[in-house]
Structures are given as structure tokens and as C-alpha cells.
Amino acid sequence: MVDVGAAETELKDVAVQVATEAGDLVRRAREAMVAGEAVPVETKTTDTDVVTAADRAAEQLVRDRLAQLRPGDHVLGEEAGGSAGDGVTWVVDPIDGTVNFLYGAPLFAVSLAAQVDGVSVAGAVVEPVSGRCWTAVRGQGAWLDGRRLAVSSPSRLELSLVGTGFAYQAERRARQARFVSGLLTRVRDVRRAGVASLDLCAVAAGWLDAYVEHGLNRWDWAAGALVASEAGAVVHLPGSDPALGEDATFAAAPSIAEALYDAAVECGVKDV
């Protein structure tokens, strides 16, 4: 009989190894950029949706290493695409927070998750500058550099700190602004870091009480949502709850999850 837990732990170890190697590449690229070296930049969906040469190089490194360590597995990445298949599919965001990276800010991450049948079973989120490494294995908990993670427990919604984010399209940003303006009157405060994977990890660590954002792609949440869930968060993934909208990601501490859900619905989250 195959020990599924052991197999998933091995996948986590691969995720840590490969994401750390990609993180080293990205960190060196940032150091060169901060020192004055030009970084080639292109745009994708809009002029504000950017991709750098470092994004592409980091994803290629991930693909090459996975081909060596896990031959036959599928890979789905932000930059080079791909699709899920039978067995294990690796989902990679080579630089989550590319705009932060491009501005020289230290807050960005490499996110890598192993999924089976579309469900994340192991993953790692590595911060290249700080060196922090967030990990999770399905059914076995979530960790930050060896410390077991557990979500916060705010006593009521009014005392909760909520993370969010905004799309690149101006029309959708306007809808998101209306939603957040309504939510602001019901919570302690709102934060926007620009790195979805790290926002989800922040919920896991209790640095945020909750996180709500529309428009994330699978590579944005594949590892971070597993970290949040394994730390005890109530998590709704895109497409799982029509009341939140077709592409909403929701993660919250259980003590305020229901209240936040109700408040989000009242504030028009479905229409974002």
C-alpha cells in the first residue's frame, strides 16, 4: 500500500528545493537591478501588467529542475502556460509580485504547488529577499521555517485586519474599489501588499485575519491557499461559491469567517 502522506511530504520537499533555487535566481536578478543593471520588461494584459526576463528565467529553471527530479509530471506556469494532466501537476508562479520586484521592493515570492486532480496536496512559497519559506502538506499542517502555523482568532469582525488586491483592468478596479470602500466600514483595516501568495500565508500566520480578492489565477493561490487552509483558515477558491463571484478567493480565521462572508455579500462581492 502506498503511504499517501509520505508521498505528499516528498512532493513538499521537491517544492521547497526547486522554489528555493528559483528564489536564488530571482534574488540575484534583483540585486543586479538595484545595482543599476537594466531589466528587460514586457507587458501582458494591460500596460500595468508586466513580466520581466527574471520571471521567465525563474520559470524555466523550475521546469528544468522538475524535469530532472519529477520526470513525467505536468507543469502549469504563469509565463509558459501548460495544462493539468493525470498524476501530479506542478503549478508555478515564478515571481508573485512582479511589480514590487520591478520597483526594487523586497516583497515578492516564488510559489510552487503540487496538485492532483486540481487539488493542492503540497507546496512552498519562498521569499527570495528574506529567505522565509512557507510550506504545507495536505492533512499535515502548515509551517514557516519550521514553526507550525495557526490562524488568528479575532473576537469580532470589527477587530479584523483584511488583505485584498486589485486587478489590472481599470473597469474592474473601480468595482473592487466600491466593494472595499463598503468593507472598510466593517473591519479594523484593509491591507494591499500586491502578492497574493504571501497574503494567504499571512492569514496562516495570523498576520492578517482574512483575505479576499477577485481575479486570481491558479498559480496565484495554489500554494498559498493550501498553507492558509492547513493553518486552519476557512478557504473558498475561485469557482467554488457563486455568492462570492465566479473568481473570488476567500480565506479567513474561523472566528470571523461567517461574519466576513456575510459582510462581503452585503457589500456586493458577487458583482466585482
Automatic annotation (TrEMBL):
| Cofactor(s) named in the record | Mg(2+)
Q: Tell whether Hydrolase is among the UniProt keywords.
A: yes
Pfam families assigned: Inositol_P (PF00459)
Q: Which domain of life is it from?
A: Bacteria
Q: What is its EC number?
A: 3.1.3.25
Question: Which transformation does this protein catalyse, written as a reaction?
Answer: a myo-inositol phosphate + H2O = myo-inositol + phosphate
User: Which InterPro entries did the record assign?
Assistant: IMPase (IPR033942), Inositol_monoP_metal-BS (IPR020583), Inositol_monophosphatase-like (IPR000760), Inositol_monophosphatase_CS (IPR020550)
Keyword annotations for this protein, in alphabetical order, are:
Hydrolase, Magnesium, Metal-binding
Keyword check for Metal-binding: yes
Q: Cross-referenced Gene3D superfamilies, in alphabetical order?
A: 3.40.190.80, Fructose-1,6-Bisphosphatase, subunit A, domain 1
UniProt record similarity statement: Belongs to the inositol monophosphatase superfamily.
User: Which protein are we looking at?
Assistant: Inositol-1-monophosphatase
